[in-house]
Amino acid sequence: MALVRSLATVGGYTGISRILGFLRDILIAAAVGTGPVADAFFVAFRLPNLFRRLFAEGAFNAAFVPLFARRLEEGGQAAARAFAEHSLAVLLTIVLAITALAMAFMPWLMVVLAPGFAAEPEKYDLAVQLSRITFPYLLFMALVALLGGVLNSLYKFAAAAAAPILLNVVFIGALLFVLPLTGRPGHVLAWSVAAAGIGQFLLLAVAAHRAGMALRLARPRLTPGVKRLLKLMAPGIASAGAMQINLMVGTIIASLQAGAVSYLYYADRVYQLPLGLIGVAFGVVLLPELSRKLRAGAEGEAMASLNRGLEFALLLTLPATVALLVIPWPIVIVLFERGAFGRAASDATAWALAAYAGGLPAFILIKLLNPAFFAREDTMTPLKLALAGVVANIVLSLALYWLLAPRGFGHVGLALATALSAWLNVLLLAWTLRGLGFLRLDGRLMRRLPRIGAASLAMGAVLWAAQAGLMPWFGGATAMRVLGLVLLVSAGLIVYAGLAFALGALDRAELAGLLRRKA
């Protein structure tokens, strides 16, 4: 139950962040739609985010948390703090160098990351300007990642999970109050990213101080612990960030089709809600959970935690996947179709959302299976498996884009390639873990999986029928559109919950016990 409570904490804050993120994206869609300013900003925003997830979050957390947890279990807080301070000094030095080089070489970097922009000089110049404003965000996110890893290892998940809320609050405030005064949406959005990075760092610095883990900035030194960290980080850059590499490959190719970068961005934002609520939450909680149990020699408890993580994740993921596959048009129309975002953009985005949705369970399972390696200080094996997914994504992206581009669906091919390559990664991870004896599905999980699937499919059939009857509502006034989506979502939740209890996919006694513990 402690695992579920931690998941509820991370998932709850992440849910608030995603909801505010939807409001942010609604305002962005109304302000810039899917035009050249939107394309330029989304590339500028994705660039530091890619490096953040590869270096600051993905590779760093995969290596840092198990090593920090080991020192916490074996040497206490003093040893753990010393390791964190040495890691901070080296990480800060590396990220400062990356930031300086990226900002200096941004014009050439943009040619590589968005080659299609070169044919439109104004969009290319704007993307370079905005990227130079947003890139320092990486520096502060590196600090946030380290502080978040420290707090998560202490089982204090709230502050790190709440930090992204600040990013969305800054965006919303800037769009509502600053943009009307300046009339320069691209620059307002870019400066919002930079300001939010500073705010998130200050929030976690205060939280770490309150947790008794205020870190001093030491002189950078390659201590044995830091050398071990860097050794584990090197393969982790590719393995933990494979999904982000795949998304960036899609961005590069999408820049060849007008509006495609924006369609993929808006579709990505929608499926990021369940991915954040479920996948990110489970990944954040499982890594320190498995690391500390394995360091304490509790192999059986670690396996039980992994099984319960898989069960609860699929209980929530499969119905979300079916819903996104069945009703992407109502979702996109209600969230984004206003102002500069018209029906053609809704149609293109909905197709991309459906393609991404097919890979949602895979994206989430990757978040759960990778920690089973990372907790054992093994980042090399996930690297090898992730690289297979990256190669598959590149090949599929090129093939599906050129196959579907003449029909106007090139961007859908890119989303589908990302989903298919994620499934390949999952199959390789599960096969390898099982062969090593690190993944054994228990009887409870095997009994409940078919029941979860049956309840999800039945819910999908109900949504399909209800959508057909309500579709005229989504061509009407805003109030009718919102009401139609509320009815669809409510019907889906009621049907799925009822069937989950009736089929035994979810136990009433367990849920009641959990709610009593939470209370």
Q: Top keywords for this entry?
A:
about 525 residues; mainly alpha; 2 domains; 19 helices; about 85% helix; globular
Please give a structural write-up.
The protein is globular. With 519 residues, it is mostly helical. The mean pLDDT is 85. Helix 2 crosses helix 4 and helix 4 runs parallel beside helix 7. The protein folds into 2 domains: 440 residues, no CATH class; 67 residues, no CATH class. The relative contact order is 0.11. Helix content is 85%, strand content 0%. It is built from 19 helices and no strands.
Topology at a glance:
Layout (H helix, E strand, L loop, with lengths): L1 H31 L3 H69 L1 H8 L7 H14 L2 H17 L4 H25 L2 H26 L13 H16 L2 H13 L5 H36 L3 H28 L1 H9 L6 H15 L2 H15 L5 H25 L5 H27 L6 H28 L7 H26 L4 H11 L1
Averaging pLDDT over every residue, what do you get? 85
How many beta-strand elements? 0
How much helical structure, as a percent, in the residues?
Answer: over 70%
> What is the terminal-to-terminal distance?
13 Å
String of helices and strands: HHHHHHHHHHHHHHHHHHH
Give a quick account of the main beta sheet: strands, pairing sense, barrel closure. Answer: none
Number of domains: 2
Structural class designation: mainly alpha
Report the radius of gyration as a whole number of Å: 22 Å
Point out poorly predicted stretches: none
